[in-house]
Each structure stands twice: as structure tokens, then as C-alpha cells.
């Protein structure tokens, strides 16, 4: 690994923040003691580490648990602590492995705000995630890996265009007929999204759907989402890998 074009050395560690998928914290210690300990490792004075930690805990609605042992917290709360000790020194390079895995939408949004603030402050963020809405919100470039090989790489727009770039969203009833012109990317009761194959005509697709007996009440077109690109690349596979650079 190279940092700023130079081989990584131990002294670069102070400018690196790493959040592994498997969390590594001292679970028998109190929340505040753990955060202060990591702050000291990152060059904070004890008081500065305590002040920063309490401000962060208050933002995470965890200030009342500062003196509680870490293993008494829920897994989501522990994950918030792990992210806190990762970003507390405002690292220049932030490496995150599934940072919001298992979070509800409210807490996911909160953690994404923290990560977005790091990016705005000048940090480079390298993030592994399966949450495509996070990539679309935060990242400048994305790479999809399949069987250890790069399947698609570029800006979000470049990757969308690589796979046709357009989608159809319909409110309808009936069965969508199979076609060479599109792929069903999402299907719910009375709602279907189709990823349009390259070169296919949207008007012709509508006529094809109607001729196949589909009752269409609403028909709109738009840009292919990264969720739909994801399905194009991996289908129903469970071993998908996505890395994104913010």
C-alpha cells in the first residue's frame, strides 16, 4: 500500500483511520475509558481525549452510557464507538469496511453525516459497502469487484452509463413478459422497475409490455440507479464486493 505515492510506513499510521468489519475494542472497559485510551494513542492529552469523546457521545445519544462497560452496549452502539475512535484524530485517509452494516435508517444517516464531514474536511475515504445509496450520496468513484477482479470502475455516472444508464419505473398490474430489451431490476406488488438494455427503445418497450397483457397505470423513465447496476453485475449472488472512494 502507498500513502501519497510512497510505501506505507508505521509513522504514517497517525494519518490513517481504519474501521474493520470485525470490531476490535476492549469490551470489559468503560466506554469513556476506551475512547480516552485510543485518543491517547492518537496523540491527544487525557483531557482533550475526554472532552472530544464526551462531545461525540452526546451527539450519538450515548453520553449517559460513558461509564458503562462496552460489552453492555448493543452491537450498533458499539459500532458507533468504533467509528468514533476511528475518526477522532481527523485522519487524512479513512478506510471503512461496511461502516453502517446492521444500522436502522436513522442511525445510518447519522453515521453517514460523520463520514461526510470527514470527507469535507479533506480526508480521502475508501469504503467497502453493499449500500448503493451510500455510494451515490458520498462517493466520487466506485469499483465493483467480482471473483476478485474489477468488473466496473469509474465515477458513479460513468458506471451507470456503462450499463445502459436508463431505467423504467411502472405502476402496473399483471405479469411483466420476458424480453431482450430489459431486465427486471426490482419488483413489488403493483410496482416494477426495468433496467433498459443498450440500444432498446423506450416507446417500443411500452408497446411490448401492453401487447403482453400488462396493465400500465404509470410509466416513467430515469437514470439507472447503482442498485440496478449492482443487480446487473451480480444477479442474486451473495458474494458481491463493492469498494467506493469518496
Automatic annotation (TrEMBL):
Catalytic EC class: hydrolase
Keyword annotations from UniProtKB, A to Z: ATP-binding, Hydrolase, Nucleotide-binding, Transport
Q: What region holds the Daunorubicin resistance ATP-binding protein DrrA1/2-like C-terminal domain?
A: 154-233
* The ABC transporter domain, residue ranges: 7-100
According to its UniProt record, the EC number is 3.6.3.-
Listed PROSITE patterns: ABC_TRANSPORTER_1 (PS00211)
User: InterPro entries per the record?
Assistant: ABC_transporter-like_ATP-bd, ABC_transporter-like_CS, ABC_transporter_ATP-binding, DrrA1/2-like_C, P-loop_NTPase
Record's keyword annotation contains Transport: yes
A molecular function annotated in GO for this UniProt entry is: ATP hydrolysis activity
Claim: tRNA processing is one of the keywords in the record: no
Concerning Pfam families, the annotation shows: ABC_tran, DrrA1-3_C
Protein family according to the UniProt entry: Belongs to the ABC transporter superfamily.
Provide the protein name. Daunorubicin/doxorubicin resistance ATP-binding protein DrrA
Q: Which organism does this sequence originate in?
A: mine drainage metagenome
Lineage summary? unclassified sequences, metagenomes, ecological metagenomes
Amino acid at each position: 500500500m502507498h500513502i501519497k505515492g510512497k510505501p506505507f510506513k508505521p509513522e504514517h499510521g497517525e494519518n490513517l483511520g481504519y474501521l474493520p468489519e470485525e470490531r476490535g475494542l476492549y469490551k470489559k472497559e468503560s466506554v469513556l475509558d476506551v475512547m480516552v485510551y485510543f485518543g491517547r494513542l492518537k496523540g491527544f492529552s487525557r483531557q482533550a481525549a475526554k472532552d472530544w469523546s464526551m462531545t461525540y457521545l452526546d451527539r450519538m445519544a450515548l453520553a449517559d452510557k460513558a461509564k458503562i462497560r462496552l460489552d453492555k452496549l448493543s452491537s450498533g452502539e458499539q459500532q458507533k464507538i468504533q467509528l468514533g475512535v476511528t475518526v477522532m484524530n481527523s485522519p487524512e485517509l479513512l478506510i471503512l469496511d461496511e461502516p453502517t452494516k446492521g444500522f436502522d435508517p436513522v442511525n445510518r444517516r447519522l453515521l453517514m453525516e460523520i463520514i461526510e464531514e470527514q470527507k469535507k474536511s479533506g480526508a480521502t475515504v475508501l469504503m467497502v459497502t453493499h449500500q448503493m445509496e451510500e455510494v451515490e450520496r458520498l462517493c466520487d468513484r466506485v469499483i465493483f469487484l467480482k471473483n476478485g477482479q474489477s468488473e466496473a470502475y469509474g465515477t458513479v455516472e460513468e458506471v451507470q452509463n456503462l450499463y445502459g444508464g436508463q431505467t423504467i419505473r411502472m405502476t402496473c398490474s399483471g405479469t411483466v413478459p420476458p424480453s431482450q430489451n430489459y431486465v427486471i431490476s426490482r419488483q413489488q406488488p403493483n410496482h416494477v422497475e426495468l433496467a433498459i438494455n443498450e440500444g432498446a427503445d423506450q416507446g417500443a418497450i411500452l408497446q411490448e409490455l401492453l401487447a403482453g397483457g400488462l396493465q400500465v397505470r404509470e410509466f416513467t423513465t430515469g437514470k439507472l440507479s447503482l442498485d440496478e447496476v449492482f443487480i446487473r453485475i451480480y444477479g442474486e449472488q451473495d458474494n458481491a464486493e463493492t469498494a467506493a472512494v469518496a
